[in-house]
């Protein structure tokens, strides 16, 4: 296999990666781009998040009177992406929560667009990558937690006689990186309103500035993964401030959601009749220190945090398409050990306090910001391949890089 085009479908974006085995044998060397899934249908019109409608037979009616299903729009987007990148194989990764009918519908639409692709779910490709780098020991039975952008999905995998089976728990927990960003944004807006009560986040005239602040907040949240405090420049309604946010503040805001998610994982583990050899966490929200710490405390055992957790699925997709080639050498994984029983008492009281505090203040701002999130659709630059309309894109070039 010479080159692979891997496309991971999310609810809010598609992650696209290319890998050329002639250039490198290390699967981590990828050219990765994040492309929005909003589909342009005219000069100023677009369909927002058509991936959520894949499998729904009810058509989406477009402003010009035409109609198309979500599967048709997503398939066309994938076909346009594939047409701009040389490849010998295409791997399309879909959310674990999709039904078989949704997957078969997209497969048929891709065929109608002339794209021959392997469709595989997120937990399966993630397991492939995690085993290839030693995050899951050979032959182990493992529980894999993907704390992703929009939700947390729990799956179980077991490898026997060279074959691996992956089973995903039905449903998903709503905790993820996007919900964390929104809660932190609400916290920032609440501070602005405390000093400037006249600022109204529900006023559409302020939504462009809110979108800019939302981007800054999301970037700041990622910086908090490795720093105890960050500063955020805020420009809202004529107010210009630099706010300092502590990691402990973020933890207070999200701890109730993280604890709920961890309890779900603990409930899954309690149902196993045979020993679980490893618990691994990855995904866009997995790098938040509180996630692995709370999981480890809840299940009373070490949790392995995948290296570059946000890239596990796209790397697994590339590896799936490449087949049996040399992947990265096994690394020493980050293991988060459970705290002692005596140390677990204090956080519980803090979690209870933060639950009351969040609902009394910040959650009210989240509700006010709901109109902004529901109505404000943001586009970006087009795919540089040509001038044709492609999915709205926030182009983030990662480029060739190692670990």
What does the main sheet amount to? 6 strands, mixed
Alpha carbon gap, first and last residue: 23 Å
Number of helices: 10
> Can you give the mean pLDDT?
79
Strand order of the largest sheet: 12-11-10-15-16-17
Poorly predicted spans: 340-360, 374-403
Order of helices and strands: EEEEEEEHEHEHEEEHHEEHEHEHEHH
Helical amount: 25-40%
Tell me the radius of gyration. Answer: 22 Å
Number of strands: 17
- How much of the sequence lies in strands comes to 15-25%
Task: Classify the secondary structure makeup into a structural class.
Answer: alpha/beta
Outline: globular
Please give a structural write-up.
The protein is of the alpha/beta class and 403 residues long. The chain is built from ten helices and 17 strands. Helix 7 (289-299) links the parallel strand 15 and strand 16 (303-305). Helix 3 (122-132) packs across helix 8 (312-322). The longest helix is centred in the middle third of the chain and has 23 residues, at 247-269.
Provide a brief overview of the structure.
This protein has 403 residues and is an alpha/beta fold.
Write the layout of secondary structure elements.
Blueprint: E1 3-9, E2 13-20, E3 31-36, E4 39-40, E5 46-47, E6 60-61, E7 67-68, H1 70-83, E8 89-94, H2 100-112, E9 118-121, H3 122-132, E10 141-147, E11 152-160, E12 163-168, H4 177-195, H5 207-223, E13 229-236, E14 239-246, H6 247-269, E15 278-282, H7 289-299, E16 303-305, H8 312-322, E17 334-336, H9 345-360, H10 362-375
Parallel strand pairs: 1-8, 8-9, 10-15, 15-16
Antiparallel strand pairs: 1-2, 2-3, 4-5, 6-7, 10-11, 11-12, 13-14, 16-17
Helix pairs in contact: 1-2, 3-8, 4-5, 4-10, 6-7, 6-9
């Amino acid at each position: 296999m010479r080159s692979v085009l891997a496309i991971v479908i999310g609810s809010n974006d598609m992650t696209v990666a290319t890998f050329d085995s002639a250039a490198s044998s290390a699967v981590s060397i990828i050219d990765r781009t994040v492309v929005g899934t909003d589909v342009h249908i005219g000069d100023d019109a677009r369909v927002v998040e058509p991936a959520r409608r894949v499998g729904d037979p009810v058509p989406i009616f477009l402003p010009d009177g035409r109609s198309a299903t979500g599967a048709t729009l997503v398939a066309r987007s994938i076909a346009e992406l594939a047409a701009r990148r040389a490849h010998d194989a295409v791997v399309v990764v879909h959310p674990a929560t999709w039904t078989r009918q949704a997957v078969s519908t997209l497969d048929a639409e891709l065929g109608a667009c002339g794209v021959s692709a392997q469709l595989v779910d997120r937990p399966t490709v993630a397991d492939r990558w995690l085993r290839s780098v030693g995050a899951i020991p050979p032959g182990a039975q493992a529980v894999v937690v993907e704390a992703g952008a929009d939700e947390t999905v729990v799956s179980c995998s077991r490898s026997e006689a060279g074959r691996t089976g992956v089973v995903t728990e039905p449903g998903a927990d709503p905790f993820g990186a996007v919900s964390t960003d929104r809660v932190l944004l609400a916290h920032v807006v609440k501070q602005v309103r405390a000093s400037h009560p006249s600022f109204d986040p529900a006023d559409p005239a302020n939504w462009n500035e809110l979108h800019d602040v939302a981007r800054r907040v999301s970037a700041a949240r990622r910086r908090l993964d490795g720093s105890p405090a960050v500063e955020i420049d805020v420009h809202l309604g004529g107010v210009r401030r630099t706010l300092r946010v502590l990691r402990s503040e973020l933890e207070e805001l999200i701890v109730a959601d993280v604890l709920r998610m961890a309890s779900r994982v603990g409930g899954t583990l309690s149902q196993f009749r045979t020993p679980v050899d490893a618990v691994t966490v990855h995904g866009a929200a997995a790098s938040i220190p509180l996630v692995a710490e709370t999981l480890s405390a809840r299940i009373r055992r070490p949790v392995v945090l995948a290296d570059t957790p946000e890239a596990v699925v796209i790397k697994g997709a590339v590896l799936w398409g490449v087949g049996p080639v040399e992947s990265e050498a096994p690394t020493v994984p980050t293991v988060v050990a459970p705290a002692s029983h005596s140390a677990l008492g204090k956080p519980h009281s803090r979690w209870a306090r933060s639950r009351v505090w969040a609902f009394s203040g910040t959650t009210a701002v989240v509700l006010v910001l709901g109109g902004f999130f529901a109505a404000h659709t943001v586009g970006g630059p087009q795919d540089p391949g040509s001038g044709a309309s492609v999915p709205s894109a926030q182009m983030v070039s990662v480029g060739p890089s190692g670990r």
